[in-house]
Amino acid sequence: SQQGEEDPQALSIQEGENATMNCSYKTSINNLQWYRQNSGRGLVHLILIRSNEREKHSGRLRVTLDTSKKSSSLLITASRAADTASYFCATGSLRAASKLTFGTGTRLQVTL
Amino acid sequence: EPEVTQTPSHQVTQMGQEVILRCVPISNHLYFYWYRQILGQKVEFLVSFYNNEISEKSEIFDDQFSVERPDGSNFTLKIRSTKLEDSAMYFCASSIDTGTDTQYFGPGTRLTVL
Known about the structure:
The structure holds two protein chains of two kinds.
Chain A: E1 5-7, E2 10-14, E3 19-24, E4 29-37, E5 43-50, E6 55-58, E7 61-66, E8 71-76, E9 85-93, E10 100-102, E11 106-111
Parallel strand pairs in A: 2-11
Antiparallel strand pairs in A: 1-3, 3-8, 4-5, 4-9, 6-7, 7-8, 9-10, 9-11
Chain B: E1 5-7, E2 10-13, E3 19-24, E4 31-37, E5 43-50, E6 53-57, E7 65-68, E8 75-79, E9 88-95, E10 104-105, E11 109-113
Parallel strand pairs in B: 2-11
Antiparallel strand pairs in B: 1-3, 3-8, 4-5, 4-9, 5-6, 7-8, 9-10, 9-11
């Protein structure tokens, strides 16, 4: 797999349910960031987790990082229709920290 | 809340023409970036810029591309002679610090090369 691969590629849930998206990467990282993108729009930063952190919360978002498995997960609790978007993880490597490498994204659809 | 802004939102140009995409980073940020996203594909890093110099660049960022901070607020990406394959959404981003800090993205400029 490539650096920053999310799974699933698409996820459809009902409002109120939780959504979990996973990201795997290959190289050693400095940090990992999650972004949201509404169709055809810009990237909205959600949360940054550093390589020495294991878990981080922001509102309804919970991010975990397992550097031994080179993976991260994003959990959105109590989802809303407005959460419908594509979600990307992006890693900043130790060698090239300023260069974010994006994953392929998970397309989340939240239905009423 | 401060935001990164980009102009224009959509640029249409003929193949071979020069284009300049403009960005105004967040005012107290020191590091600036350009990324692009070809329709349906991943967001790809182009270049990072700090202290009036390129810090890192990708293989995509060849001699056709250049960046400049012409004044204290603008950050530009120039494509000298556009090709069809340059059609993409171009995102500018900025951060206070590099490597350990959040990169905030602008809304993007959609470039269409005909």
